[in-house]
């Protein structure tokens, strides 16, 4: 194989297709729009793009509810548009990773419509069906991530079906071998079309406990942020079952029939997440596990150190994929606002830190502009999560507003029509065309170029340097020492030796003393 390890230490740019670029003029982003804007992505110097779901969907959960696994939703375009997008990406040297939402389908999928129609149709066992309890109540106490019981009554069968997420997202029954085989063939469809990999949505939710055992009584459902300490502290029987370890091997075997492909699994776990990521990324299963650990509000040098240190200690041989922002969480500049000397300083520090962590990384569209969360009113919301949990949890629309390309064009140059979510002025102010020399965008480009020039930043191991808060320092591959000031105040830290400055932002080396400006960054070659 040519370059089967390309994913190790790679940087992936996440595109949220609804909000990247509208080409058709309907206010919703599409594949032709993405193709048109790929130069911007390639110009950053990333290795790959990941597209959130583009398959046919009624959009109850914005594409995470698929009604046809082998087609493109008309709102995004056609399979021809997809092929053209992949061809352009490859021309630009970008790998293409697409989301695969295999754990559940849409409730409008033909398989579900058939499955729900009776107890003895050919697809009767494709979803998770169970009889009511004698008093008519749901089979057990499982809770949905989006609030309320995870069971929905189906009068045609006089049974309940199980849904970890919305009732519009019934869970497929992976215990059924036919479902597994069908799923693998759906995945093969995209491998044949030339995609380089998959981001596996909710990869730890594929299997539920066959015996439908109750979750611990002290389990407290509620708002679903991963950083909510009461959320899912306990082992849940509705997900992460041992059978998954075998299925992931089947999936990997399929991938290995093709050259240079990759699997990154989204592992949303509050109970022993690192051990599970380790299991999933060893033994011939996934290549990478997407971690939630840095998508939280937690912020201090010890926290970042602990995550990386624990991963490689508890998951030896495994490989993480880190991210600070995505389409599910409040953008990191807003989450970590109070630790920034300015929006720009925090954005640059974030980029330098993210791109220095041992592992692969995903960045999210707009992050390279220093984008902040968009403030929306209740009436502007579309996300079911926000509509249910408002105002404690405003949902995920605020990080999904359109990409801004032009600071003076209507809707930031995203669309000529009214966009599906509004473009507001604080976001438009940092449009691509407004970012010159010294800007956040310029920093992302320079930082990624620097990273490419130092192979140890891609795959080198990590040696920690003990520096007191707020400084985080480590050496990658024995070559490049990375020093970060996580505080909005200046800070200093002593290095083990003197050396040469390779790359710096508002910082310098004075003998053995690293002198860091507010949120300063220093990359050194120690002598
Ligand atoms: O998210 C999975 C997941 O665990 C989410 O519940 C996450 O914790 C939450 O959104 C944080 O606010 C994936 C997708 O990324 C998400 O967009 C989908 O809604 C979900 O799966 C269901 O497919």
TrEMBL record:
GO terms for molecular function: alpha-amylase activity. It comes from Wenxinia saemankumensis. One of its GO terms (biological process) is oligosaccharide catabolic process. Belongs to the glycosyl hydrolase 13 family. The keyword Hydrolase applies. Residues 14-400 form the Glycosyl hydrolase family 13 catalytic domain. CDD domains: AmyAc_OligoGlu (cd11330). The keyword Hydrolase applies. Keywords: Glycosidase, Hydrolase. This is Alpha-glucosidase.
């Amino acid at each position: 194989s040519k370059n089967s390890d390309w994913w190790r230490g790679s940087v992936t740019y996440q595109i949220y297709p609804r909000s990247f670029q509208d080409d058709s003029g309907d206010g919703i982003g599409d594949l032709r729009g993405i193709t048109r804007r790929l130069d911007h992505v390639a110009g950053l110097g990333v290795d790959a793009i990941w597209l959130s779901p583009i398959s046919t969907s009624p959009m109850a959960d914005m594409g995470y509810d698929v009604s046809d696994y082998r087609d493109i939703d008309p709102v995004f375009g056609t399979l021809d548009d997809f092929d053209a997008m992949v061809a352009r990406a490859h021309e630009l040297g970008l790998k293409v990773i697409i989301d695969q939402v295999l754990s559940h389908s849409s409730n409008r999928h033909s398989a579900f419509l058939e499955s729900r129609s009776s107890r003895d149709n050919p697809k009767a066992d494709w979803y998770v069906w169970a009889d009511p309890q004698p008093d008519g109540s749901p089979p057990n106490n499982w809770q949905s991530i989006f609030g309320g019981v995870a069971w929905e009554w189906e009068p045609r069968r006089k049974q309940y079906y199980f849904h970890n997420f919305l009732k519009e997202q019934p869970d497929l029954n992976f215990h059924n071998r036919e479902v597994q085989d069908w799923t693998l063939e759906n995945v093969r469809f995209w491998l044949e079309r030339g995609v380089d990999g998959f981001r596996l949505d909710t990869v730890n939710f594929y299997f539920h406990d066959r015996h439908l055992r109750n979750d611990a009584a002290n389990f407290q459902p509620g708002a679903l942020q991963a950083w909510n300490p009461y959320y899912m502290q306990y082992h849940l029987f509705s997900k992460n079952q041992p059978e998954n370890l075998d299925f992931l091997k089947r999936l990997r075997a399929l991938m290995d029939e093709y050259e240079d492909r990759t699997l990154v699994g989204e592992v949303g776990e509050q109970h022993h997440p690192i051990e599970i990521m380790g299991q999933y990324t060893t033994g011939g299963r996934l290549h990478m596990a997407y971690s939630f650990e840095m998508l939280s509000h937690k912020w201090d040098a010890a926290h970042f150190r602990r995550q990386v240190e624990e991963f490689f200690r508890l998951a030896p041989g495994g490989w993480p994929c880190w991210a600070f922002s995505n389409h599910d969480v409040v953008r990191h500049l807003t989450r970590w606002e109070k630790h920034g000397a300015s929006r720009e300083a925090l954005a640059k520090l974030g980029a330098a830190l993210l791109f220095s962590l041992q592992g692969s990384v995903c960045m999210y569209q707009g992050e390279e502009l220093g984008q902040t969360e968009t403030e929306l009113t209740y009436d502007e919301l579309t996300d079911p999560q926000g509509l249910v949990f408002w105002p404690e949890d405003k949902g995920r629309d605020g990080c999904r507003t359109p990409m801004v390309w032009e600071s003076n064009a209507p809707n930031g140059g995203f669309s000529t029509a009214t966009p599906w979510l509004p473009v507001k002025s604080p976001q438009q102010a940092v449009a691509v065309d407004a970012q010159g020399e010294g800007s956040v965008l310029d920093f992302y480009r320079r930082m990624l170029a620097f990273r490419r020039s130092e192979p140890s930043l891609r795959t080198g191991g990590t040696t920690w340097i003990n520096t007191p808060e707020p400084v985080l320092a480590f050496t990658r591959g024995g070559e490049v020492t990375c020093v970060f000031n996580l505080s909005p105040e200046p800070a200093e830290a002593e290095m083990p030796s003197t050396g040469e400055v390779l790359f710096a932002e508002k910082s310098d080396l004075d003998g053995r003393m690293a002198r860091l400006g507010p949120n300063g960054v220093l990359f050194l070659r120690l002598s």
